[in-house]
Amino acid sequence: MISLPKPEIEGGILLNQAIYNRYSCRKFSSRKLTLKQVSLLLWAAGGRSRSRRTIPSAGATYPLEIYLVVGKDCVGNLAAGFYWYIWERHALELKIGKDLRKEITVACLEQDFISFAPVSVLISAQYERTTTHYGRRGVRYVHMEAGCVCQNIHLEAISLGLGTVVIGAFYDQELKAVTKIDYQPLAVMPVGYPK
Asked: For 164-174, how does the pLDDT look when each residue is reduced to its tens digit (9 = 90+)?
C-alpha cells in the first residue's frame, strides 16, 4: 500500500476561477506530475472531507470505486501501473504493475490522446450498493454521484494547472478485461499538463 501526501486544502485557485476556466483538454505534454498533484485529484474524487466524503452519495451508499492508471516515469517516483484508490486511508493499492495506457486507449475507441496523458482516473460502479436500498431508481443516483466525481476531478485539475476531459466512449467489456475490475466502468479521465 502506498500512502498519499495529505491533501492541502488551503491551496489552489478560487472556485469561481476554476469553474470559469474549466474546459475539455485533449492534448497533453510529457511533463511529469507530482505525487502531491495525484493525491489532490484522488482526494477530490472521493476522499475524506469535513463531513464524510468530498462527494455526495444517496443514502451514503458510496457505490463508486476509483482507480488510477499511471504511465511509466509519469508521476514522481510512483511506478507505472493500475492502482485502486482506498479513500479511508488516502492510499493506493497496486493491482496491475504495468503501463496500461495503450490498452486503455484501444478500449476507449482508439482516442489516442489518452495514451499521452501521464495518468487517467477510472470511475467504476457497483450498482448493487445503491439499488439494494433504492431499487431501479438507484441507478440514477449512481450516475448523479459519478457526475459529481467527474466535476470534482475536473475542477481540481484546473486548480492545479492541469487539464482533463471526461471519456464515456469505450467498450465496457474490453476496459474491464484490461483492468481486471469487477465493477461497471462509467468514465475515464486522462489528466496532465495541457500541451
From this structure: 999 999 999 99
**Is 42 a domain residue?**
yes
Rounded to whole angstroms, the Cα distance separating 137 from 186 reads: 17
Residue with cell 489516442: 112
Residue 63 CB contacts under 8 Å (≥ 6 apart), including other chains:
57, 125, 126, 127, 128, 129, 130, 142, 145
Residue 146, number of CB atoms within 10 A of its CB: 20
Closest CA to 126 of 53, 60, 64: 64
- Contact 92/75 with Cβ under 8 angstroms? no
Flag whether 11 is in a domain: no
- Residues forming a β-bridge with 167: 188
Q: List the CATH number of the domain containing 41.
A: 3.40.109.10
Q: Could you give the CA distance from residue 195 to residue 187 in angstroms, rounded to a whole number?
A: 22
Kindly tell me the sign of the dihedral angle through the C-alpha atoms of 155, 157, 161, 164.
negative
- Residues 1-20 pLDDT 10s: 999 999 988 888 899 999 99
